[in-house]
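Input record (Table S2, row 293):
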Amino acid sequence: MKILLLGKNGQLGYEIERSATRVGMNCYSLDMPQFDITDRKSVQEAVGKEDYSLVINAAAYTAVDKAETESDLAFEVNCSGPAHLASSCSKKGVSLIHISTDFVFDGKNRMPYRETDPVCPLSVYGRSKAAGESEVRDRLEKHIILRTSWLYSTHGNNFVKTILRLARENEELRVVDDQFGCPTYAADLATLILRFANHVHDVLPSVWGTYHYCGKGVATWHTFAEKIMELARKRAVFKCKRVRAISTEQYPTLAARPAYSALDCSKIEGLFRIKRRSWEESLGEMLNGMVSP
Ligand SMILES: NC(=O)c1ccc[n+]([C@@H]2O[C@H](COP(=O)([O-])OP(=O)(O)OC[C@H]3O[C@@H](n4cnc5c(N)ncnc54)[C@H](OP(=O)(O)O)[C@@H]3O)[C@@H](O)[C@H]2O)c1
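Output record (NAP complex):
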């Protein structure tokens, strides 16, 4: 099976490429500047170049706050891009795994969101990703939309790396404690995506559709930061002595974020009979790969 991976330089794309290489999968990968998802021709050429059975789209505009002032670009990358991609896949008869986000929800739930819950994004980023999902659904039958949340990896920019950097420079960190979500190790998600890739053509046709996948357990950004520091201190010395809990009001950002965006993953767990790892266990593994004295 030949796979085309888009967004190979991002945190998730990097982990997918790494896992695919490890298991010997035939995966061709692209990213900017050789490939631009907003350019219909670039997309058509990429999808048409080889006889792919599957495209994985990890390319996206992910700067949540910047998107508030770069709305056109966010929509080009997160909505028009997936639209071009779904059309090209449909013409070539190729299936697509498209990655989306918990930020399509408004955060008013008090139970983990299911795939059937209505979307109601609070930010430009969330709206652009929700619009991208609709384009994929409307243009291509053989699609998987995989929503995930609070991604981190040893590669790229993310919350874990920001906390470690700040903890080396400051005695006290102030972190929001009233937004709840599920931290997800990009390497775990990459493993799941390749499992999907391997089985997507030999399970029932009803497999196409929307799924949720994230690390097991719910955290706030503050409890996440405290766990990062607890585990990291076992591996190295930091200047940081305290992680103080603050409210969203005390940390204003350009983009509004859902107060609660935990994802219910029972649909995908049932399909593959998988047991997700706790986010704490995965975090420990990630830190083993990057924190040293
Ligand atoms: N990060 C999170 O916490 C999070 C949470 C939930 C869901 N997600 C979703 O998960 C997926 C992967 O996220 P990630 O964190 O791995 O993102 P990322 O690290 O920002 O990677 C995205 C990749 O897409 C590339 N890209 C941007 N514009 C492009 C364009 N016009 N054409 C082709 N490639 C382009 C980026 O290149 P440049 O770096 O050069 O721009 C980057 O390599 C995305 O769909 C995202 O919405 C992420």
